[in-house]
Design goal:
Elements: E1 14-19, E2 32-39, E3 43-49, E4 54-60, E5 66-70, E6 87-102, E7 107-111, E8 119-123, E9 148-154, E10 159-164, E11 186-191, E12 196-201, E13 209-227, E14 230-237, E15 245-250, E16 260-266, E17 271-274, E18 280-283, E19 288-293, E20 300-314, E21 319-323, E22 332-337, E23 348-356, E24 363-364, E25 372-373, E26 379-386, E27 389-395, E28 402-408, E29 417-420, E30 439-441, E31 447-449, E32 476-479, E33 484-487, E34 492-493, E35 499-500, E36 513-518, E37 521-526, E38 530-531, E39 537-538, E40 550-555, E41 558-563, E42 567-568, E43 574-575, E44 589-593, E45 596-600, E46 605-606, E47 612-613, E48 625-630, E49 633-638, E50 642-643, E51 649-650, E52 662-667, E53 670-675, E54 679-680, E55 686-687, E56 699-704, E57 707-712, E58 716-717, E59 723-724, E60 736-741, E61 744-749, E62 753-754, E63 760-761, E64 773-778, E65 781-786, E66 790-791, E67 797-798, E68 812-816, E69 819-823, E70 828-829, E71 835-836, E72 850-854, E73 857-861, E74 866-867, E75 873-874, E76 888-892, E77 895-899, E78 904-905, E79 911-912, H1 927-941, ...
Antiparallel strand pairs: 1-6, 2-5, 2-6, 3-4, 3-6, 6-7, 8-13, 9-12, 9-13, 10-11, 10-13, 13-14, 15-20, 16-19, 16-20, 17-18, 17-20, 20-21, 22-27, 23-26, 23-28, 24-27, 25-26, 28-29, 30-31, 32-33, 34-35, 36-37, 38-39, 40-41, 42-43, 44-45, 46-47, 48-49, 50-51, 52-53, 54-55, 56-57, 58-59, 60-61, ...
């Protein structure tokens, strides 16, 4: 349902908001975060959360509710930790934002305050069970029980927040933050823009003070509050202290809620709260009192002489809502009954409004069936069930009113969502006090009376039912007990039939006045200075002679008096007060006369204007002090130690017995104490601590009066525990020297003795010290009998039998155990190489070298092609690569042979052959293959026959030196020679045919 915009603007409105939500019980069961956004014009709204990785733009249509939601777990899940788990909502135009933490049958919601209306001081409000309900079935995070909740969100970088914790209840020891933050403590947190810090607490933290150096948003509540057997989330964004109020209507909530508890919280010391019902109580800063409101009590009205906050807690279906003070009432609001879930929608929605009783007729839309007057107040309340959709609720005359929303889930009786319909936060700081004049305004069309220092509407009490005849124009009155309803007649309307619904001023003109419509008639309220039925007559204000001492001149609604000399004011009736300027000084009394005055001076002053002070100190009356002149008197400021009017009495400082343990000696402005032994300080009140000098060297000092004793540590004695007890005094060491220590001793044993008292003889052979010999134990020593060939104390040294050089003629000595062996150079032999022999007798020179004996042995003269000490090395004649044109060199004895490639010949393969076409024999072999065969044949023909013969003999008659091998035998050799001969003959024939064709290329 939509209505024309007759109001100025819906409240609260802003362009920047922050929002946050705590972790809730049953969090995984259809949880849903929802924002309901309302706007007067089409706009785009940006929703962002750094902590939840959200950045999204949504289009919002004018005058239509827009719901943004998510089924993810977007909650503050930490505890006393700074995180980014918040939302920021911004728009280029003004919007209204409602925030809901909804599930199928649990949750709560709040009206978000625009950032521009946030502040730096808040007082936390929560509510907790009295710990008498059965909560064993509640399996919650942190401690397994329900918790109160506090959330703080920063709006600027580098914001410092101070939280002064105030805990009430039997579980104070549980504290907040998992038992790390306790009652009376203050924590400081530093937050950047849109960061959050929160706490989950085991008890009620109402009265906790939150202050900051930059604006913040503060939310509080309960993650699963239990009322009357049901539990639900409680959550509200708190009003800052600057927005607290002094008059409140506590409406009876709809029947489904089972009544409510209103918690009133003070913001200043010695705050008095009262109600027309007779209730009165006092509060301090952060202190609170709960007021029950139900069908028995009906709605209540309260007022306070200092700003307070009021929070509503419904009982049957647990919920929490801020109650707006009358100073924050607005003339119109945007409200809605949102759809949270297509399947699990809200079951019902209720709206309660609080309207000045004489202005209910102007509320639009007219959907409220009956208003109930609140006793002792100017207000009436009414409730109505809402349908789904957007509402622009307003008053046609802009009269401020308030209201509360109650949203019930689809099924179950576990919870309800509640919050105010809005606030008028503009200039709320000027609505908190009354001026000294006694008449003031709270910013609404209704004045307040300050005669008793309270902030209240000025109106008559019309709550006594029909007894006060409240219905105007003879309308019928139906008495409903504590309230009533008027049955209007004669075209009248309004709660009291006080409004004429016909305008009789349409065809009547008041010449100099305003037409007032009445039932069946009209009257003219004339402009001042006019009279008559139509205000057509100018009144002569001089007709009654108003000027007492002057001449009157008439005007329109005015006259002017020309006064005689010495008189003034509008009527020239007042003698001019020549004393008005206070000419008489020093409290002199001024006497007014016509156009002059006279001064009567107070004692101590003289002069025409009493301007001269008589000096009472001129006689020097102060004996021991300084004189200070006063009006008509003097005052002596005494020197320390003296007293009396003239400072002539010495003060006895010992009169008060100041010396506790001593004798007092009086002096001028001082005293001294002669202390008893064992006491000190100015008044002899301090027992001298004889232990202060630490006299006990190795012990604990016990102080006494003028004495001390020492409790010695083990091992020490005497008065000051300075003497080490000699544990060696009893000579405990049998075969050793005693060394004293503190509270014990050690023995340095004589050689050969051991154990603590050196009483045991040691067995020196026990460790087997003789490596190669037999050990014999001796007193404090041992003796080794060494095996032959070894010596040393432990028989661990092998005797070097080569030490004396027994090997002669250059022989090399090799040491053995208890013996040696000589390795002789050639030409000598014998045990010690002492026998000379013929070095050439064994033909040491190989390959037919010639042996010559010398003093050092022998020398070999090698034949051509060999080298080495015994001519054992064949000189490699191919080392210089003599074969050209890629010929292959084969080393011979003192010679070499070149195997030439195809088309080359000569000793060094340096001659190019003349064959220019493929040469064929009786086979298909080409020239390259033939050259390879010739190369192989040459290599075969140049085999060293002596080596071949030696190999054949070895295979026939000499077994292989390897233990598991044997020769191929004589038959194998014969087969090898036969095969070799066959291939040799065939290759020779092929070579001859090839050479023949080289000479005669025409033959095939």
């Amino acid at each position: 349902m939509q209505f024309s915009n007759l109001g100025s603007c819906a409240l609260p409105k802003g362009r920047e908001f922050v929002a946050a939500f705590p972790e809730m019980y049953y969090q995984g069961f259809f949880p849903e975060i929802s924002f309901v956004i309302l706007s007067d014009v089409n706009t785009t709204v940006h929703i962002e959360s750094k902590g939840f990785n959200i950045s999204e733009d949504v289009d919002v249509q004018a005058m239509v509710e827009h719901r943004y939601s998510s089924d993810s777990l977007f909650y503050y899940k930490a505890n006393l930790e700074v995180t980014d788990m918040t939302f920021s909502v911004s728009s280029g135009t003004d919007i209204t934002l409602f925030c809901y933490n909804a599930m199928v049958h649990r949750g709560d919601g709040y009206v978000a305050l625009p950032i521009i209306d946030l502040a730096t001081k808040y007082i936390v409000v929560t509510h907790i069970d009295n710990h008498t309900s059965n909560i064993a079935d509640i399996n919650l995070p942190y401690t397994g029980q329900s918790h109160t909740v506090l959330l703080i969100v920063a709006t600027e970088d580098a914001t410092q927040v101070d939280v002064s914790l105030n805990i009430k209840g039997p579980l104070m020891a549980g504290g907040c933050g998992g038992g790390t933050f306790f009652n009376g403590e203050t924590r400081t947190f530093t937050l950047n823009k849109y960061q959050i810090v929160g706490a989950y607490c085991s008890e009620d933290i109402t009265g906790t003070l939150v202050t900051s150096d930059k604006p913040v948003a503060v939310l509080s509540g309960h993650n699963t509050k239990r009322f009357s057997g049901s539990s639900n989330l409680l959550l509200e964004m708190l009003l800052p202290v600057k927005s607290f109020g002094r008059s409140f209507v506590l409406p009876e909530p709809p029947t489904i809620t089972g009544g409510a508890v209103y918690r009133v919280v003070g913001s200043e010391a010695t705050t008095t709260v009262r109600s027309p019902s007779g209730m009165s109580f006092s509060l301090g800063e952060g202190e609170y009192l709960d007021i029950d409101v139900n069908s028995t009590t009906g709605s209540l009205y309260i007022e306070a002489d200092r700003p307070v906050s009021v929070v509503q807690f419904t009982q049957k279906l647990a919920s929490m809502a801020i109650v707006p003070p009358t100073s924050l009432f607005a003339g119109d609001y945007d409200i809605s009954k949102p759809v949270f879930n297509p399947t699990y929608d809200l079951h019902s929605g209720y709206l309660t409004v609080i309207v000045p009783t004489d202005k209910v007729i102007g509320l639009r839309p007219q959907i409220f069936p009956q208003f109930t007057v609140i006793k002792g107040s100017c207000f009436s309340v009414a409730s109505v069930e809402l349908r789904t959709g957007f509402y622009r609720l307003l008053h046609v005359d802009g009269v401020p009113f308030g209201g509360m929303m109650y949203l019930k889930p689809n099924w179950g009786n576990s919870g309800i969502f509640t919050h105010p319909i809005g606030y008028n936060l503009t200039d709320d700081t000027v609505k908190l006090g009354c001026s000294s004049s006694g008449i003031c305004s709270d910013g609404t069309p209704y004045p307040c009376s300050c005669s008793k220092g309270y902030f209240e509407y000025q109106c008559d009490d019309s709550s006594a039912g029909c007894n006060n005849d409240p219905c105007h124009y003879s309308s019928g009155c139906e008495d409903l007990g504590s309230t009533y309803i008027c049955d209007c007649v004669n075209g009248s309307g309004g709660a009291h039939c006080e409004i004429d619904i016909h305008n009789h001023c349409e065809n009547n003109t008041c010449v100099n006045g305003t037409c007032v419509d009445e039932i069946g008639a009209f009257t003219c309220n004339c402009t001042d200075g006019f009279t008559g039925e139509y205000c057509e007559i100018n009144i002569n204000e001089c007709a009654h002679g108003p000027c007492v001492h002057g001449t009157c001149m008439d005007g329109i609604n005015n006259y002017t008096c020309i006064c005689e000399p010495g008189y003034t004011d509008l009527d020239c009736s007042t003698d001019i007060d020549d004393c008005a300027t206070g000419p008489c000084q020093n409290r002199g009394i001024c006497h007014d006369f016509v156009n002059y005055f006279n001064c009567s001076c107070t004692p101590g002053f003289i002069g025409l204007l009493c301007e001269t002070d008589i000096d009472e100190c001129s006689s020097n009356p102060c004996v021991n002090g300084t004189c200070s002149d006063q009006p008509n008197m003097y005052k002596c400021i005494c020197t320390p130690g003296y007293e009396g009017v003239n400072c002539d009495e010495e003060i006895n400082e010992c009169a008060t017995s100041l010396c506790v343990h001593g004798t007092c000696v009086d002096h001028v402005n001082n005293y001294t104490c002669v202390c008893e032994p064992g006491y000190t300080d100015w008044n002899c009140s301090t027992d001298i601590d004889e232990c202060a000098t630490n006299p006990c060297v190795n012990g604990t000092c016990v102080d006494h009066v003028n004495n001390y004793t020492c409790d010695c540590e083990p091992g020490y004695t005497d008065r000051n525990c300075s003497t080490d007890i000699d544990e060696c005094a009893t000579n405990p060491c049998v075969s050793g020297t005693c060394v004293d220590h503190v509270n014990h001793y050690t023995c340095d044993c004589e050689p050969g003795y051991t154990d603590m008292n050196c009483s045991t003889d040691m067995d020196e052979c026990l460790s087997n010290p003789c490596v190669n010999g037999n050990c014999s134990d001796q007193p404090n020593m041992y003796d080794c009998t060494c095996t032959p060939g070894y010596d040393g104390i432990n028989c661990d040294t092998d005797i070097d039998d080569c030490l004396n050089g027994p090997c002669r003629n250059g022989g090399t000595c090799i040491d053995f155990t208890n013996s040696y062996n000589c390795s002789c150079v050639p030409g000598f032999e014998g045990t010690d190489c002492e026998i000379a022999i013929d070095a050439c007798a064994g033909n040491p020179c190989q390959n037919r070298g010639t042996c010559t004996q010398s003093s050092g042995g022998f020398t070999c003269s090698c034949p051509a092609g060999f080298m080495g000490d015994t001519c054992q090395t064949n000189i490699d004649d191919c080392a210089s690569n003599p074969c050209q044109n890629e010929g292959t060199c084969t080393d011979r004895i003192n010679a070499f042979e070149c195997l030439c490639p195809a088309n080359f010949s000569g000793q060094l393969c340096n001659i190019l052959m003349g064959c220019t076409c493929p040469c064929r024999l009786n086979s298909s072999i080409d020239s390259n293959e033939l050259a390879a065969k010739i190369k192989w044949l040459k290599a075969l023909l140049t085999v060293d026959k002596s080596k071949l013969s030696s190999a054949i003999r070895k295979k026939i008659s000499v077994p292989d030196e390897r233990p598991s091998a044997s020769g191929i035998g004589f038959s194998g050799i014969c087969c090898l020679v036969t095969a070799f001969g066959f291939f040799l003959i065939m290759d020779c024939i092929n070579v001859i045919q090839f050479l023949t064709r080289q000479k005669d290329p025409g033959k095939t």
